[in-house]
Amino acid sequence: MKVVSLFSGIGGLDRGFINNGFDIIWANDFDKYAVETYKANYSNHIELGDINLIDFDDIPDFDILIGGFPCQPFSMMGSQQGFDDARGTLFFRIAEILNNKIQNGHKPRAIVLENVRSLKTHDKGRTFATIQRILEGLGYTFFAKVLNSAHYGVPQTRNRTYIVCFANENADFAFPESVELTTTLQDLLEKDVDDKYFLSERILPTILSNGTGGYVGKSEIDLKIARPLCATMAKMHRACQDNYVTQNDRVRRLVPRECARFQGFYDDFVIPVSDSQAYKQFGNAVTVNVSDAVAREVRRTLEILGEWH
């Protein structure tokens, strides 16, 4: 089935769907470095640019829409109805694209969206309610659940909200069952690491502190299951926010290849960008193991409905 991917980043969500026989025919992201990494690993079907500025006619017809869309404040939440509730947000652009295809007789069969865990509780739940109302208003059944990457084979605590919708009102979708975690953070570490990743004696006390000012957190390193990778890892936060490990009696940060592994990318995944950009990309990525599991259930549902092709 033909898939369009929005806010594609480095293709974590895309990879899961490719693994399950879906055909990504068009993708988009506005970050030139993410697009560089995407092209190095997939193909040139990704278009660089602001999705708000791309003409509807430039987006080919598709069966499935997927995307890890950014969560922006819904300033008109609860005060209006339909699209007006989400105007000015990137979710609204998704709704516009779907509505355009529907109006032109090409209603997509399914939608898969990924966002932060707090999407469900943002603005006392009104943000999430608006998203659900809009998608149901477009004629889709709506399913949502928070999934943790650590429950799908990678040692990283990463909770994300997944929304899955089907055009068929008879769709009975079940999110994938969790699997036993058999690896630890230590299992995925490189054995020979460049000296530049190790912390100096000067910065070590700051990194290992429990916080200063208004922020206090428990500083822990050498965890068995990694903390959520974040897009600002290059800035080197305290050990209560980022992941640090002890190796050869010294403390170091994770290297980009290790971050790739914690997001489910195999070691043949090409990293063509600087460390700073790589940290950002893996911090923003969708965990491949989770997208793979979700894509498998989406395909199973479409097959049951007799709509898989």
For the CA atoms, what is the radius of gyration? 20 Å
End-to-end separation: 6 Å
> Judging by the overall fold, what is the CATH architecture of the largest domain?
3-Layer(aba) Sandwich
Number of strands: 9
Biggest sheet: strands, sense, closure? 7 strands, mixed
Global morphology: elongated
- Roughly what is the average pLDDT, rounded to an integer? 92
Under CATH at level 1, the class of the largest domain stands as: Alpha Beta
Proportion in β-strands: 15-25%
**Residue share in helix:** 25-40%
Brief overview:
This protein is of the alpha/beta class. The chain folds into two domains: 2-179 and 284-304, Vaccinia Virus protein VP39 (Rossmann fold); 185-274, DNA Methylase, subunit A, domain 2 (DNA Methylase, Chain A, domain 2, Alpha-Beta Complex), CATH 3.90.120. The chain has helices at residues 12-19, 32-41, 90-103, 126-137, 204-207, 256-262, 275-284, 288-304, and strands spanning 2-6, 23-29, 46-48, 64-67, 110-116, 141-148, 159-166, 244-247, 250-253.
Report on this model:
The structure is a single chain. The chain has 309 residues and is of the alpha/beta class. The protein folds into two domains: 2-179 and 284-304, Rossmann fold; 185-274, DNA Methylase, subunit A, domain 2 (DNA Methylase, Chain A, domain 2). The protein is 27% helix and 16% strand. It is built from eight helices and nine strands. It has helices at 12-19, 32-41, 90-103, 126-137, 204-207, 256-262, 275-284, 288-304; strands at residues 2-6, 23-29, 46-48, 64-67, 110-116, 141-148, 159-166, 244-247, 250-253. A seven-stranded mixed β-sheet has the order 3-2-1-4-5-7-6. The protein has a two-stranded antiparallel ribbon with strand order 8-9. Helix 1 crosses helix 8. Residues 74-85 have low confidence and may be disordered.
